[in-house]
Design brief:
Order of helices and strands of chain B: HEEEEEHEEHEH
Structural class of chain A: alpha+beta
Largest sheet of chain A: 6 strands, mixed
Helix content of chain B: 25-40%
Strand content of chain A: 5-15%
Shape of chain A: extended
Oligomer: heterodimer
Radius of gyration of chain B: 16 Å
Number of strands of chain B: 8
Distance between the termini of chain B: 14 Å
Helix content of chain A: 55-70%
Membrane topology (chain A): Multi-pass membrane protein
Largest sheet of chain B: 6 strands, antiparallel
Family (chain A): Belongs to the Vang family.
Number of strands of chain A: 7
Strand order of the largest sheet of chain A: 1-4-5-6-2-3
Shape of chain B: globular
Subcellular location (chain A): Cell membrane
Organism (chain A): Oncorhynchus tshawytscha
Distance between the termini of chain A: 93 Å
Strand content of chain B: 25-35%
GO cellular component, one term (chain A): plasma membrane
Number of helices of chain B: 4
Chain lengths: ~525, ~130
């Protein structure tokens, strides 16, 4: 393995923060200045007014990205310190992340404390109803008979079931932070609060004030409260969990950079919850975003624009700015249409050449990996006891056979522009994993031959961690036919369109199995 | 001379269709016409003995009952039925053809038929 390749894997990371993250920082500043809600952290979604970004804003940073393409060749003397050095942008980014996450946690803790208070109130209320008469007027109370004591058991078990049910439904680790409040949960909390307050009012007026002696009646009142709470919990299950299970909308998600499209079926959700579901599926289904694959089309576009220059011959007569720009762009379009452009030719031959090169490298890689795998053999249990010579664990075995395939693997990754997705460490880890689980060389190579889903790679390669939901309608409103919203990331965005699943009218037709009869096709004759 | 012949041929090909009017005969509770049909788009055209082109899926008269209304009206065996009372019969299934001929509320059917023998007779006379 040549030394340049060893370090270039790490230098890329710091080089990247100097290079194209500048582009990311610029647009992030745009976002920061325009967004009202600045809270943003890992996988959080914030609302953003649709920003009016200049369409050709990318061309200004084109130069930097073109430079970035040749990092493998131009990066030379990178020492070990580059692994640990932090550039200025990294520091700024980290502090920003910190303060953003603190803001979101405040909101999270606030809602958590509110929920805990409400829960305690709900649980302690029946117990209070039962205990207060004994504390306040114990001598006037009638003795609790058998039926009344039976009701105690019922209250106890119902409270236990309610406790378990609430724990199962509500006390789960939150998956994400959504921009707006979850409408159904808020409504349910208000309902529960009103309900408990009204029970307390009734209790306070009719029982505490008048000091009712009929203890069985009080116990039955407490039991009715617990029953009603169980029913409210049932309502919560139906509203929060069951209602959106039935698919009602089919959403089409397209990535703006390379057009990769997927379709999902969702139920009746609000836009923010639909966005959450889509993002969870994004990490599993979409292949990892690879900016290196897009540079070719960008350079072609730049060449088209740069080929023509517009001169204003009429002088300062046509002063209206918009009219001038309009006529200029029209002139450029017309000239571009007439120009004999051979760029399609170049593209065709370039792509054919690239295809050939990739196939050649792939063939060499497959052969090298297969040969490397033949060098190690799994030792059986009986042989292990003999322990002759150097016995290696999977990691050492991987390190032993890695050098023989490293060069061809590196060359292949460079040809397919995937070299920044895999570091040497991760490749060796994957090799050890494959050796441990008795995988074939083909199985080992599969994750390098095709770009896998985003989750497959380490977190730092995702390039998709902070999301913004851009929508023209309120994000707590439900999905509708033809709803369009955007999930914006720094480097790309996902365009989501929703369509209603059509109403299916199914009718039945009964066919008697005995009715399947056939005749030969002869000329039949009918007399009329 | 050849143009005259081609004109004549054109006129003759128009005249090779014959209009036949059959009055249905009441027999019991059925109205019968007195012939049998074969063919249709759902049938096998290769087995049609009367058609010249063996991919012709039209309706052909396969039998004419002697003394029946069809024979009286001049229908002959091998005729291809083109129209019945204005309904087209060149692209119908066998059952549809039967239905169009046996409508209960019609007493008279007017057929437009074409006959191979007519063509051959005229062509022979032209030679």
């Amino acid at each position: 393995m040549d030394t340049e390749s060893t370090y270039s894997g790490y230098s890329y990371y710091s080089g990247r923060s100097r290079g194209s993250h500048r582009h990311g920082e610029r647009s992030r500043d745009h976002h920061k200045s325009r967004s009202k809600d600045g809270s943003r952290s890992e996988k959080s979604v914030t609302i953003n007014a649709p920003p009016a970004e200049p369409l050709l804003g990318d061309s200004s940073v084109l130069g930097e990205e073109v430079q970035d393409d040749n990092w493998g060749e131009t990066t030379t003397a990178v020492t070990g310190t580059s692994e640990h050095s932090l550039s200025q942008e990294d520091i700024v980014r980290i502090t920003k992340d910190l303060e953003d996450s603190v803001g979101l946690d405040c909101r999270r803790y606030f809602s958590l404390t509110l929920a805990v208070v409400l829960g305690l109130l709900v649980f302690l209320t029946p117990l209070a109803f039962l205990a207060l008469p004994h504390l306040l007027w114990p001598d006037k109370l009638l003795v609790c008979g058998t039926a009344c004591e039976g009701l105690f058991i019922s209250v106890a078990f119902k409270l236990l079931i309610l406790l378990l049910a609430v724990w199962a439904l509500f006390f789960r680790a939150p998956r994400a932070g959504l921009p707006r409040v979850f409408v159904f949960r808020a409504l349910l909390a208000v309902l529960v609060l009103l309900f408990v307050v009204s029970y307390w009012l009734f209790y306070g007026v009719r029982i505490l004030d008048s000091q009712d002696e009929n203890y069985q009646g009080i116990v039955q009142y407490a039991v009715s409260l617990v029953d009603a709470l169980l029913f409210i919990h049932y309502l919560a299950i139906v509203l929060l969990e069951l209602r959106q299970l039935q698919p009602a909308f089919s959403v089409c998600v397209t990535r703006s950079t390379d057009g990769e499209t997927r379709h999902y079926n969702l139920g009746q959700l609000s836009i923010q919850r639909a966005a959450l579901a889509i993002m969870e599926n994004y990490y599993r289904d979409f292949s990892v975003h690879n900016p290196a694959l897009l540079t070719a089309s960008k350079s072609r576009a730049a060449k088209h624009l740069a080929g023509l220059k517009v001169y204003n011959v009429d002088g300062p007569e046509n002063n209206a700015a918009t009219g001038l720009a309009h006529s200029q762009s029209r002139a450029m379009i017309a000239a571009a249409a007439r120009r004999r452009d051979t760029s399609h030719n170049e593209l065709y031959y370039e792509e054919a050449e690239h295809e050939r090169r990739v196939r050649k490298r792939k063939a060499r890689l497959v052969v090298a990996v297969e040969e490397a795998f033949t060098h190690i053999k799994r030792m059986q249990e009986e042989e292990q006891k003999k322990a002759s010579g150097d016995v290696m664990d999977p990691r050492e075995a991987a390190q032993a056979i890695f050098p023989s395939m490293a060069r061809s693997l590196q060359k292949y990754l460079r040809t397919t522009r995937q070299q920044h997705c895999h570091s040497m460490e991760s490749i060796q880890q994957h090799l050890a994993f494959c050796i441990t689980n008795n995988m074939t060389p083909k199985a080992f190579l599969e994750s390098y031959l095709t770009p896998g889903p985003t989750l497959q790679y380490g977190r730092e390669r995702w390039l998709a961690r902070q999301w913004t939901l851009v929508s023209e309608v309120s994000v707590t409103s439900g999905l509708k036919e033809g709803a369009i919203f955007l999930l914006k990331c720094i480097d790309f965005s996902l365009v989501v369109t929703a369509k209603r699943i059509p109403y299916i009218q199914l009718s039945e037709e009964f066919i008697d199995p005995k009715s399947h009869k056939f005749v030969l096709r002869l000329q039949s004759e009918t007399s009329v | 001379m050849s143009s005259f012949l081609s004109q004549l041929h054109f006129q003759l090909s128009c005249a090779l269709q014959q209009r036949i009017e059959i009055c249905k005969l009441r027999q019991g509770e059925h109205l019968i016409l007195g012939f049998s049909i074969g063919g249709g788009i759902d049938q096998d055209p290769g087995q049609n003995p009367f058609s010249e082109d063996k991919s012709d899926k039209g309706i052909y008269v396969t039998r004419v009952t002697p003394g029946g209304p069809a024979e009286v009206a001049g229908l002959m065996m091998g005729d291809k039925v083109m129209q019945v009372n204005g309904w087209d019969m060149t692209m119908v299934t066998h059952d549809q053809a039967r239905k169009r001929l046996t409508k209960k509320n019609e007493d008279i059917v007017r057929l437009l038929v074409t006959r191979k023998s007519l063509e051959q007779a005229v062509r022979h006379s032209m030679m």
